[in-house]
Amino acid sequence: MIKLTELALRRGTKLLFEQASLTIHRGEKTGITGANGTGKSSLFALLRGQLHADAGELALPPHLVIAHVAQETPGVARAAIDYVMDGDVELRTLEQQLQAAEQAHDGHRQGELHAKLDAIGGYTARARAARLMHGLGFANEQLERPVADFSGGWRMRLNLAQALMCRSDLLLLDEPTNHLDLDAVYWLQGWLAQYPGTLLLTSHDRDFLDEVCDHILHLEQQRLNLYSGNYSDFERMRAERLAGQQSAFEKQQREIKHIQSFVDRFRAKATKARQAQSRLKALERMERIAPAHVDSPFHFSFLEPHKLPSPLLTLDQLAAGYGDTPILQGARLTLPPGERLGLLGHNGAGKSTLIKLLAGELAPLAGDCERAPELRIGYFAQHQLEQLDPTASPLLHLQRLDPKASEQQLRDFLGGFGFLGEMALAESAPFSGGEKARLVLAMLVYQRPNLLLLDEPTNHLDLEMRHALVLALQEYGGAMVIVSHDRHLLRSVCDRFMLVDSGQVTDFDGDLDDYRQWLLDGQREQAAANEATKADHRAEHSAAARKEQRRAEAEARQRLQPLRKQLDKVEKQLDTLQQQRTAIEQRLADAELYQETRKEELNHLLQQKGELDKAHQQAEEEWLSCSEALEAALGGDCDQTVPA
Predict the structure, then answer these.
(1) I need a labelling partner for 421 at 20 to 30 A (CA). Which of 25, 341, 463, 597 fits?
(2) Is this prediction's pTM over 0.85?
């Protein structure tokens, strides 16, 4: 249980919140929301003991194990799976203690430590780490790769896996979906649903908050307000409070009008009943929640493109890739004005490659790409955030795009993206990731594109900016192609989906719920394929193959009978010695044996164990010698196995 009583917290001279009193019970999953700078990260630092309250009290249970995601990943040569396993600190501590006990030949201590390792699942820890890594998108061949080989985004996935590896009582996750694709988001969502501890989660992914959280802690106006329910429940409750103000009501009506016009247009264009029903349900939910965002600082819209040629762009039998390695082949796509296309597919399947191809950043390897002469592309990708001029202000960035525009016109435009007052004149170098993303979007919107290509546009955006982007995209008159792990954005904006898989780009007949089922079906098919491979392997030893094998084995047994008999004898000896060693180790694990009155018995057992260890080692050496002789006689095809 986490309890705050009349708590106040400052960073420097800035008061983040005060008079905070709330209780979070064990096992609850609480999402933390609020504008940037309201204190979400500072609250995490407070819980981890890195900050101290300026007033009031924070009460945490004793011996609380807290897990969090590290923000930095050292570029070490350590294998990725070992780095993930380091998240289980108790496991690593026990392993070190066991190694020390073995070097000291302390049998009693070894017995105790083996029992503790077994109790915490230490012998299956590596398999657990591998499952975590697979869920977050790592392939088998990546598990043993050095951490230093991975890019920044993949290192953040390693940090997340390390945090999940910890058998924690309290898990603190700060924007865990930022570096994940949709497949990994679905997996993490399921994992957190089964997490038995207490979860505190900051996220700008409303669908993720809806699926994972049972409480929402909202930070605003230097107060902490705890709401029961998921994020949609929180929005409705907050909307009831805000909608009482007349100005808020009027703004809500304008937003509802925008949404209704989108619904009318969607009804006219929808061709798939199931997808249409899903989209209309999402829009109905948006109507209910819209008033919760009436105090958002972000309000903007796309200006009508100067020209809307049809089609804007056409791909025909196009291949794309890097170097001589094709990633996509035979792609066919036509983008007329008004097309609203979402791309789905596994990580690495080629979604971003297709976006780069459409944007002209990647030349096709084959096929035709026909672009309308009046085509104007607005391309958003994460690398563009780093291409901003760090010495230029938001105002100067726009002045370079439109030298004839007045300063006031540009400042009014920038205000809709949250660049108000002095911030519009500040250098962009110290901007946060979210601020840089807003500036790139502002520049993109200002240029009046007729084709939008958006590759993970919401990664650094908070919930209010995401909401403003959704509303603007709903009114956009050109065509758009979107790659995103933000399901709310995809549901609210896209009319149809295409699947990028196995080098092909095909229509996906369904919605995001169908895509999730497709992922589950694919996992089951993969499991079935693995089982079929095993069955094929077993079949190799069936029928005629087994008959021929038996004949050859019979001849080999006659030639090698003396060696086999000796090997069998040594194996039985090893089994007997191991049973005797196990029995003595069990007796040595008895704490009462170490009393002063049983000292003679203890010494006798230790002497016996030493003799058995020596005999076991000699037997193993003899077994190894016999095995090598047998393998040499068989021509390297020995079918014996080393006993455990």
Answers:
(1) 463
(2) no
